[in-house]
């Protein structure tokens, strides 16, 4: 029997899945087990649900990212190759590469807001040699800019591209800086921090407050009575590549 190129690729893909299945199942299982343990211990686990339908109603809106970047002194650099991003929009094909077909494309919208997923099992934390990035007890994945040595291992490990590197000194490009949040320096990695400084004051993240249609809902995923849990219980939601076992805390309502 003649083996076509299509048949060969199908067999090759099946073999790869079989070889990696054990590792994948273990990774996903680890993330799920950790979520269950945290819920039983009464710990908070902050998460966010983004209503893509509401986002589409405000086509071209970027108030969430503007509020985020303004609050955290994210620079606007003239060279696109040096761009620093905490919250931004990506084409849905890049955000959900394995969910592309004629029937889901409209549900996901043309572009999707993306940020750090504050994973249950963050790959970035595991590879950092100086513990400059770590996960707090409430699920927020943090950065210590003083410990960061700029090796960018965390950027290579993150499957979502949620981290930026300061190739140049960002401080001259801040315009009117926010004095309440420290600016970074050249040679360090940075990313969304779930507005941990606002959480400490009992406030919602800046992006959530700035959204004109309340398309972003933030809350405790371990609290069954929280607004985010009520929302996730009544709507279908997707995560970015959950099969990788990282356990994203960002959910997209479709």
From TrEMBL:
SUPFAM superfamilies linked: 4Fe-4S ferredoxins (SSF54862)
Gene3D superfamilies reported for this sequence: 3.30.70.20
Coiled coil region boundaries: none
Superkingdom of origin organism: Bacteria
Keywords on record: 4Fe-4S, Iron, Iron-sulfur, Metal-binding
Domain 4Fe-4S ferredoxin-type as annotated: residue spans: 139-168
NCBIfam families given in the database record: DsrO
Protein name per Swiss-Prot or TrEMBL: 4Fe-4S dicluster domain-containing protein
Annotated source species: Geomobilimonas luticola
Record lineage: Bacteria, Pseudomonadati, Thermodesulfobacteriota, Desulfuromonadia, Geobacterales
